[in-house]
Design brief:
By secondary structure, this protein is mainly α. The protein has one domain. Helices cover about 80% and strands about 5% of the residues. Helix 1 crosses helix 3, helix 2 packs antiparallel against helix 3 and helix 3 crosses helix 5. The longest helix is centred in the N-terminal third of the chain and has 24 residues. Keywords: Membrane, Transmembrane, Transmembrane helix.
Amino acid sequence: MAPESMNGLPVTVLVVWVLCAAGWGVVLAGLRNGLRGASRGPALFAHTATPAGVVLLFAFLGFGSLYATIALTAEWWSLLAVTGFRPERLLSTGGPGQLAAWAALTAATAYAAARFVFHV
């Protein structure tokens, strides 16, 4: 049976952090391998700056970084699911339908993950 907490930190929080880091890495690898040309540099910079920017935004709004981490995890894994693990497709061939699918899947995933983590 798995421990309920590790040194006082709930295991679900650790799982969210690991999934967030893994999702960020997979999206970064997809962008590095899939993008070419003038859009590559800005896309990689924006992706690299996103975690710090989102955590700072959530702190400014008064939410904790756990909410930001859950939101980012949902966004990255939803992006990978919608684009078939090729995130550059959203930039090159994606349209409003694919963007809407990404937004809807992100919202549903973030809601479910927050309910799971906070046991609401």
